[in-house]
Design goal:
With 74 residues, the protein is an alpha+beta fold. The protein is built from 2 helices and 3 strands.
């Protein structure tokens, strides 16, 4: 996973044909309520369409896991 911290924020560098949903799933393990937060943190990201170009920096917001999840094992 191509990630780096810049000014205290996690930056994900896209690979060819990444989507925001895929990035959300890859980092958080979920897309619900996360994809929207990524778009809010990265104004103009929607202008790239569904598939993002390679080597695009995407700021990853600090999001807590959904509180309604059930842990089946640890």
């Amino acid at each position: 996973m191509s990630q780096a911290k810049q000014q205290g924020k996690l930056i994900y560098w896209t690979k060819c044909d990444d989507t925001v949903d895929y990035i959300a799933w890859k980092i958080y393990g979920q897309t619900e309520n996360v994809t929207e937060k990524i778009f809010e943190e990265n104004h103009g990201l929607v202008n790239f369409g569904v598939y993002l170009p390679e080597n695009l920096p995407v700021i990853i917001p600090d999001i807590e896991k959904a509180s309604g999840q059930v842990v089946l094992w640890q």
